[in-house]
């Protein structure tokens, strides 16, 4: 199965370990990856801020770049950015040049954990992590992409990992893209409540499927001098892997 | 237009809310309690998503054929001997109501809770009439009135920002000498209001739904005060927004069900009434019956991207799930319509100059869109407001337009982005610190505590990860990784 990596600008700029983990997990499960080099950004920063004229060029570039390979699927490490790709057909529905391409792109784009669990059918990625962790559910992944189960199902099967539920799971962490820089006064209160919720679980590791939320919550942890480890779900599923333990849906547990 | 509740700048209001710990705790507690109640009430009904489809269809249908339904409703009210007045502005509505009050020589006016009368600032206008007193009979509105006309902070729970001690103090001014026990205070208010009710000569209510095919007014309350307001005074005036209409009782049943479950987590509120003027053989109800149908900016939304905002049934569920409302409260919005619906509706009714800040005060988490019983795409409408302000009106919302347009160019250009990747690590050197942080695995290449320009909003609150050296970034790793793979294959 051929997979084009939708790396996202945040991972490209800041978090190589996330992209690397995602590629290694996908290849381990048998995907042949490629990285379209002309991709830049899904366009949320400008589009969600109201600069729609400027955003069209961003969309065109991203569509052309991501469709430039013969990949069967396009997979990215961020629920929010993938949800944006899925909105392209709606945004560009009246665009004669891009409406069809936008649909083609949306139809084969998936967030990483969603792809591993729903499309590849993996329930156990063979990973091991000795830790107590909690999971932050990103708003766009949950509400716009509609993915509520895949990350939890995959994390449940990581060996030695104890997942503890996060209170107020449904509340936003206060990132919100440009909101975090434009409205720091409100964003701070939101991220503080999130940090307090995470601390209350006693977890030592915070996991999420959106690097941007992790960057926000982790950045506040650091400012408050709270001791915690930040991990993207791809890093967890790539940790101490025993390939013989990889298991698919509807497959007997042990041989 | 008086939907505005404050003259202070948005940021000042936000800061004031941040310092109002009681309000914040109270809102958070109410949101959490409502979350459970609402979810349970919706689950009990079953097939909630299909109910939402139905609710959306009903509301969209009504808005599409609004002139026809308004005409049908108006004809049916008049057939029963009632009067209908179409008010384009708040001023026209207020003047008509004042005229009726004068004609009827009304001196004691009772009102039930109505956001639209708050919108037109009706209470103060009526108090300007000689020898006229007015009584808000909804318990929460009564408290606000007696607390020197404090502004509501929620469209369903207007006194969410007040605690029982504050309410006890308000009641003391009215001669209350009891404890701060809610039940005891409610009993006092009930007696106080009941005495006033018995002598009232004019009743003013809002309207949850107006039934087009029979001219009835549907009111949904938990206190029964609206029913008394309709039953006791001989003159009744109903004030409604022009979109608050349903074709028939069938649709009202569907929407009442969804409204009660969404607003207060109940199957149905304690009182759900359908009424109109007193007709032959009835022993109570108004003999003189007026309906004021108000536009007041609502038609600004018709035929535009913002038309879905008219679908709203004022359940307030979007306020109850909103993380922004959770922290800044109703007063933070500075509009009598706060929360996500208020951030969409206020600029439609009263323009961007006054309410242009509100659409930006959202992280676009879409909790509002997810909970809306009639599927208003609230977070998308917030983005549409931003688009109007940026693309069309070219407003400057303290965000640097030149920089944001530059970001548009940079994120559409693979070449510029590659240059950025190559230079990001070195470029960030003057800002970066390599000191240890308490956070593991986020700042593997150092971090930034103070960033310039628009990024300063980020570092005002939190540390920023420093970009890795170009040779360590994801794309460089991937290139090496692919090369190794190919070499590995050729060795085999």
Automatic annotation (TrEMBL), chain A:
GO molecular function terms noted in the UniProt entry:
oxidoreductase activity
Q: Which residues form the Cysteine-rich domain?
A: 3-86, 134-217
InterPro entries assigned to the protein according to its UniProt record, in alphabetical order: Cys_rich_dom
Sorted alphabetically, which Pfam families does this protein's record hold?
CCG
Q: Which GO CC annotations does the UniProt entry carry?
A: cytosol
Q: Which PANTHER family match?
A: LACTATE UTILIZATION PROTEIN A (PTHR30296:SF0), UNCHARACTERIZED PROTEIN YKGE (PTHR30296)
Annotated protein name in UniProt = Cysteine-rich domain-containing protein
Q: Which organism is it from?
A: Liquorilactobacillus mali KCTC 3596 = DSM 20444
Upper lineage ranks? Bacteria, Bacillati, Bacillota, Bacilli, Lactobacillales
UniProtKB/TrEMBL annotation, chain B:
Q: Which GO terms describe its molecular function?
A: 4 iron, 4 sulfur cluster binding; metal ion binding
| Matching Pfam families | Fer4_8 (PF13183), LUD_dom (PF02589)
Superkingdom of the source species: Bacteria
User: What InterPro entries does the record point to?
Assistant: 4Fe4S_Fe-S-bd, 4Fe4S_Fe_S_CS, FTHF_cligase-like_sf, Helical_ferredxn, LUD_dom, LutB/LldF, NagB/RpiA_transferase-like
Which biological process terms from the Gene Ontology are attached to this UniProt entry?
A: lactate metabolic process
Please give the residue ranges the record annotates as the region Disordered: 468-492
UniProtKB keywords: 4Fe-4S, Electron transport, Iron, Iron-sulfur, Metal-binding, Repeat, Transport
The answer, when asked if Membrane is one of the entry's keywords, is no
**4Fe-4S ferredoxin-type domain location:** 302-333
The UniProt entry's coiled-coil ranges are none
Q: Establish whether keyword Ribonucleoprotein is in the entry.
A: no
The protein depicted here goes by the name Iron-sulfur cluster binding protein
Q: Which organism's genome codes for this protein?
A: Liquorilactobacillus mali KCTC 3596 = DSM 20444
């Amino acid at each position: 199965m051929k997979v084009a990596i939708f790396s996202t600008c945040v991972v490209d700029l800041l978090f190589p370990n996330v992209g690397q983990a995602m590629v290694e997990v996908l290849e381990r499960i048998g995907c042949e990856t490629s990285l379209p080099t002309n991709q830049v950004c899904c366009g949320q920063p400008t589009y969600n801020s109201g600069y729609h004229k400027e955003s069209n060029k961003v969309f065109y570039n991203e569509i052309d770049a991501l469709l430039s390979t013969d990949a069967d699927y396009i997979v990215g490490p961020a629920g929010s950015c993938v949800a944006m790709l899925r909105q392209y057909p709606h945004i560009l529905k009246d665009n004669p040049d891009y409406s069809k391409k936008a649909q083609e792109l949306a139809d084969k784009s998936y967030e990483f954990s969603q792809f591993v669990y729903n499309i590849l059918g993996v329930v156990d990625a063979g990973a091991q992590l000795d830790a107590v962790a909690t999971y932050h559910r990103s708003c766009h992944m949950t509400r716009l992409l509609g993915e509520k189960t895949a990350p939890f199902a995959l994390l449940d099967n990581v060996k030695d990992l104890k997942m503890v539920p996060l209170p107020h799971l449904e509340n936003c962490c206060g990132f919100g893209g440009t909101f975090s820089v434009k409205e720091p006064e409100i964003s701070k209160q939101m991220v503080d409540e999130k940090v307090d919720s995470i601390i209350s679980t006693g977890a030592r590791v915070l996991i999420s499927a959106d690097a941007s939320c992790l960057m926000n919550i982790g950045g506040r942890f650091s400012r408050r001098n709270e001791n915690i480890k930040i991990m993207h779900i791809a890093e967890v599923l790539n940790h101490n892997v025993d390939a013989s333990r990889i298991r698919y849906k509807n497959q007997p547990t042990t041989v | 237009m008086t939907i505005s509740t404050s003259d202070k700048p948005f940021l000042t209001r936000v800061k004031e809310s941040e310092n109002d710990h009681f309000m914040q705790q109270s809102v958070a507690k109410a949101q959490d309690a409502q979350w459970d109640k609402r979810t349970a009430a919706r689950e009990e009904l079953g097939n909630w998503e299909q109910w939402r489809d139905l609710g959306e269809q009903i509301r969209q249908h009504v808005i599409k054929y609004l002139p026809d339904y308004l005409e049908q409703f108006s004809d049916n009210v008049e057939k029963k001997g009632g009067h209908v007045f179409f008010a384009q502005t708040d001023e026209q509505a207020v003047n008509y109501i004042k005229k009726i009050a004068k004609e009827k020589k009304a001196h004691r006016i009772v009102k039930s809770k109505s956001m639209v009368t708050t919108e037109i600032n009706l209470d103060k206008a009526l108090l300007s009439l000689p020898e006229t007193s007015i009584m808000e009979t909804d318990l929460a509105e009564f408290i606000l009135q007696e607390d020197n006309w404090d502004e509501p902070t929620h469209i369903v729970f207007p006194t969410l920002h007040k605690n029982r001690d504050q309410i006890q103090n308000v009641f003391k001014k009215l001669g209350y000498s009891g404890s701060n026990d809610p039940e005891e205070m409610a009993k006092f208010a009930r007696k106080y209001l009941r005495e006033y009710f018995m002598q009232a000569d004019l009743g003013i209510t809002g309207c949850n739904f107006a039934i087009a095919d029979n001219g009835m007014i549907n009111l949904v309350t938990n206190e029964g005060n609206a029913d008394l307001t309709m039953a006791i005074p001989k003159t009744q005036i109903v004030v409604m927004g022009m979109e608050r209409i349903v074709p028939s009782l069938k649709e009202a049943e569907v929407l009442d069900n969804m409204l009660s479950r969404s607003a207060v987590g109940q199957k149905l509120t304690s009182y759900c009434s359908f009424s109109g003027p007193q007709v032959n053989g009835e022993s109570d109800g108004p003999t003189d019956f007026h309906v004021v149908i108000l536009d007041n900016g609502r038609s600004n939304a018709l035929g535009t991207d913002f038309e879905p905002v008219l679908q709203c049934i004022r359940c307030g569920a979007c306020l109850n799930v909103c993380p922004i409302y959770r922290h800044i409260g109703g007063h933070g919005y500075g509009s009598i319509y706060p929360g996500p619906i208020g951030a969409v509706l206020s600029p439609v009714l009263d323009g961007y100059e006054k309410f242009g800040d509100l659409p930006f005060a959202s992280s676009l988490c879409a909790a509002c869109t997810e909970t809306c019983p009639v599927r208003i795409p609230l977070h998308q409408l917030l983005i549409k407001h931003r688009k109007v302000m940026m693309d069309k009106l070219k407003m400057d919302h303290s965000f640097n337009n030149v920089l944001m347009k530059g970001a548009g160019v940079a994120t559409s250009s693979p070449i510029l982005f590659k240059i950025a990747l190559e230079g990001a690590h070195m470029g960030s050197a003057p800002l970066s610190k390599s000191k240890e942080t308490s956070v593991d695995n986020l700042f593997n290449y150092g971090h930034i505590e103070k960033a310039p320009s628009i990024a300063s909003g980020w570092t005002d609150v939190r540390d920023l990860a420093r970009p890795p050296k170009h040779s360590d970034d994801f794309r460089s790793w991937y290139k090496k990784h692919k090369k190794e793979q190919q070499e590995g294959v050729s060795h085999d």
